[in-house]
UniProtKB/TrEMBL annotation:
<feature type="domain" description="SnoaL-like">
    <location>
        <begin position="15"/>
        <end position="143"/>
    </location>
</feature>
<dbReference type="Pfam" id="PF13474">
    <property type="entry name" value="SnoaL_3"/>
</dbReference>
<dbReference type="InterPro" id="IPR032710">
    <property type="entry name" value="NTF2-like_dom_sf"/>
</dbReference>
<dbReference type="InterPro" id="IPR037401">
    <property type="entry name" value="SnoaL-like"/>
</dbReference>
<protein>
    <submittedName>
        <fullName>Nuclear transport factor 2 family protein</fullName>
    </submittedName>
</protein>
């Protein structure tokens, strides 16, 4: 493996680690770690689209949205599938499927309410900084289409 190919593989591994760290911070409800995942300052304006939300722009509004999500979610876990990383220069694009399991407050004194599963396809754009790869943009869209399995069923009368 030549040196350039080795560096590209190392960069991809670093981007994958940064992407994983972002989701793990969200799972733990660690706003400080999640804040550290995003580009600092205002040189490049960060943006975020949560499923069903309008576009949020600017670090303050984006981080406030995550604080609200964390404050109102008792449990959340992400199982990432279909992760793909592509890069050009100092920018990396990560696409993935977020298989989300979450639960809210319980009723009747239980520790946790019913768990709900859902699929979201996400695009995460990272920029390389002196402190490593940082999120520039996150866009999540709910998966509303049925799976391919439904297409295989015979629906003839």
């Amino acid at each position: 493996m030549n040196e350039e190919h080795a560096r590209a593989a190392a960069d991809i591994a670093e981007v994958e680690a940064a992407n994983t760290a972002f989701y793990e911070a969200l799972e733990r409800g660690d706003l400080d770690a999640l804040t550290d995942s995003w580009l600092p300052g205002e040189e490049l304006t960060v943006s975020c689209v949560h499923p069903g939300w309008p576009v949020l722009t600017g670090r303050r509004d984006v981080l406030r949205s995550y604080a609200l999500i964390m404050a109102n979610t008792d449990y959340i876990q992400f199982f990432l599938t279909d992760v793909n990383v592509t890069m050009t220069g100092e920018t990396a694009l990560v696409t993935c499927t977020e298989n989300i399991l979450s639960g809210g407050p319980a009723e009747d004194g239980d520790a946790l309410g019913p768990l709900v599963g859902r699929l979201v396809v996400a695009t995460n754009v990272f920029r390389h900084t002196a402190d490593g790869w940082k999120l520039w943009s996150h866009h999540g869209s709910p998966v509303l289409a049925d799976s391919d399995e439904d297409d295989d069923e015979d629906t003839t009368p």
